[in-house]
């Protein structure tokens, strides 16, 4: 049974396991949602399996990784969040993605606040960053409401800009 990490007013957040592959695929195969993730392309089902394998290894090595988000009242899976180290970067980074039907209802801010608090208090992470595309104003607002502040920006190889926000 996956470990419960924390709860917020409307959400329960727990570690993921292989039983979550289908839900990961449903979130990360959505073209519109993936506009803002990685290279902007939906991921394949086999990549979702690899992602769970990597996350399970992260749990063993770091004690944290990607987590599943459930709405309390319905027990419905609504997305994923976590603190990760993409590409082995040294700084812990907050990541989150929600099913489209849950956008615009405050769930992103709620889970960003909850995961950040969990990271700072339970995991003793003094500083957490989060990166976001310059054009993704909704996600920037989520981060600001969660207590993050703008730190810097970089121009990517494709001339897009990625903003870094941080807390701590």
From TrEMBL:
Organism of this sequence: Pelagicoccus albus
Classification via InterPro entries: Acyl_CoA_acyltransferase, GNAT_dom, N-acetyltransferase
GO molecular function, one term: acyltransferase activity, transferring groups other than amino-acyl groups
One matching Pfam family: Acetyltransf_3
Keywords: Transferase
Domain of life of the source: Bacteria
Domain N-acetyltransferase positions: 11-168
Name assigned to this protein: GNAT family N-acetyltransferase
């Amino acid at each position: 049974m996956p470990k419960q990490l924390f709860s917020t007013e409307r959400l329960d957040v727990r570690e993921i396991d292989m039983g979550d592959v289908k839900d990961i695929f449903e979130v990360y195969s959505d073209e519109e949602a993936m506009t803002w993730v990685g290279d902007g392309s939906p991921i394949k089902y086999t990549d979702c399996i690899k992602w769970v394998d990597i996350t399970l290894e992260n749990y063993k090595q770091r004690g944290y990784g990607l987590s599943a988000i459930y709405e309390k009242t319905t027990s419905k899976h609504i997305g994923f969040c976590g603190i990760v180290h993409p590409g082995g970067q040294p700084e812990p980074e907050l990541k989150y993605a929600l099913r489209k039907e849950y956008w615009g209802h405050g769930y992103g801010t709620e889970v960003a606040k909850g995961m950040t608090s969990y990271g700072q208090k339970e995991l003793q992470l003094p500083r957490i960053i989060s990166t976001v595309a310059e054009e993704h104003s909704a996600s920037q607002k989520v981060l600001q409401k969660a207590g993050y502040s703008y730190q810097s920006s970089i121009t990517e190889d494709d001339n897009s800009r990625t903003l870094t926000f941080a807390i701590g």
